[in-house]
Amino acid sequence: MTDILIFDTTLRDGEQSPGCSMNLEEKVQVAAQLEDLGVDIIEAGFAIASEGDFEAVAAVSAQCRKAIVASLARANQADIERAAEALRTAERPRIHTFIATSPLHMRVKLGKSPDEVLESIERSVSLARNLCADVEWSAEDATRSDPDFLARAIEIAIGAGARTINLPDTVGYATPQTYGAMFRDMIERVPNSDLAIFSTHCHNDLGLAVANSLAAVMAGARQIESTVNGIGERAGNAAVEEIAMALKVRHDVMPYRTRIESTEIAKSSRLISTITGFQVQPNKAIVGANAFAHESGIHQDGMIKDSSTYEIMTPESVGLIHSSLVLGKHSGRAAFKQKLLDLGYDLGDNAFQDAFARFKDLADAKKEIFDEDIVALVDDEVLRGHDSIQLQEIEVYCGSHGPQRAILTLEVDGEERTAATRGNGPIDAIFSAMRKLVPHEDARLERYQVQAVTGGTDAQAEVSVVLSEGGITALGRAAHHDTMVSSARAYVNALNKLIAKRARSAGNVRASL
Ligand code: KIV
Ligand code: ZN
Fold first, then answer.
1. Both 243 and 359 in a single domain?
2. Ligand 1 close to Cβ of residue 170 (< 6 A)
3. How far is the CA of 332 from the centre of ligand 1 (A)?
């Protein structure tokens, strides 16, 4: 059986997509979940890009003991040294250095001749190898590179000590035939190719990222780079859950094995969409809300007789929990604790007491409490952090005869502030009150999104709010059975993050790829 390494770049290429940024605490939490998911390599960031990226690589390095931790670096000394520094405490560090090899990128982006690029490869990979035993080299825009030049570049990178060669389809231009053929060609013609593992890295501009990655594996690649939910630049990267399940379900035609623990897929997907606020489209393969739903009568009839009539994999195999009725208002602490453990949460005492109090409130308001409700409630509690602005009270007046009004009380650094405002609808009124109590005129509301956690009119509303100000974006989220309350809490959460980021951003210039 041939093993395939999974290189996860959710925290680097995934986080690079607009509106997907995560804070340090969130990145560390994602890295822990990625280890549970069983990925082999976690690309934790681009250390030189910003102080935040550096800290994230350092924190993930300090935490992860199973997975290799990688940091991205361009082909220059400062980038490579910064990456090595961020990876200092990693048990298994990897420097991932790259340079563009297509004529267009070399000319327009780098302003370098092909020979100068070859020199940079030799120099950068050698430097990286002096600082770290495990070096990956990527040929950015490999799929639009001249094959003779690409082969020469790969040979130099391997000669200088790279042991993983990544050939990205940076612009999502390849097809399965062309991408597979490129790997076959390079592995065959590069004289020292046997010293390296070849890796895929596909973007999804034509919706072919997963198909291209699998074609490359069939042509000899042994590492796949991907992200949870396929998040990433533009149309995203290859989705890890689709790759893992395709290899598992179609083992008959693709005899390859990954270390992915498929039952961790749903949890990983949910964590990423909760943290980034990027909801998964309902018909998305593997993790979409409808991926295992059977609506038509004929399908339902078949499913009742034998689920394999219309299901090629079970929801349980990807870790989907059944919407079972779990607890009610008479459930006690012990039952709640056991349920949390069953769902994979082991909370400390204080977090447990807070979550239990919220569960009791929810049980008073909502007749039936499902596993999804508990997950939303705990995520809301755990991910909130130590906000300096807290929502105290909210009253909203709405209906067909406007204007709608809100009375809002916040605690701001220990001081209680109340405002009453009118608005064009209740949400507008709430958000205006926020601006009155904590002035932030320059901030823009980029996104306001509501999603029901379960079915039913008493479902909890999961709200995400994105605020932006001078290039800084902050995502807030919350879940509550009252949509107005969760909207206010999500806004407060975003505002707290915006203020914290604003304070940190001075002197912090992001490097670009
Ligand atoms: O898409 C790409 O080419 C990349 C490289 C920097 C690896 O993300
Ligand atoms: Zn990429």
1. no
2. yes
3. 50
- H helix runs in 407-457, sequence order: 426-437
Same domain, 362 and 433: no
* Closest of 411, 378, 385 to residue 488, by C-alpha: 411
Range scoring the smallest mean pLDDT among 211-220, 229-238, 333-342, 415-424: 333-342
Check: pTM over 0.70? Answer yes or no: yes
Q: Which domain holds residue 445?
A: 386-502
By CB atoms closer than 10 A (0-12, 13-18, 19+), residue 429 is: buried
Residue whose CA is at the smallest distance from ligand 1 atom 8:
13
* Least distant ligand from the CA of 143: 1
CATH number of the domain to which 489 belongs: 3.30.160.270
| Strand extents, DSSP E, 328-443 | 369-370, 389-397, 404-412, 415-423
Q: Which two tokens stand for residue 198?
A: 């070849």
pLDDT digits 0-9 by tens, 292-336 = 876 666 666 666 777 777 789 999 999 986 655 567 788 888 888
Q: Tell me how far apart the alpha carbons of residues 427 and 412 are, in angstroms, rounded to a whole number.
A: 21
Residues 330 and 442 in one domain: no
Which SS3 state, helix, strand or coil, does residue 80 take?
helix
286 found inside a domain: no
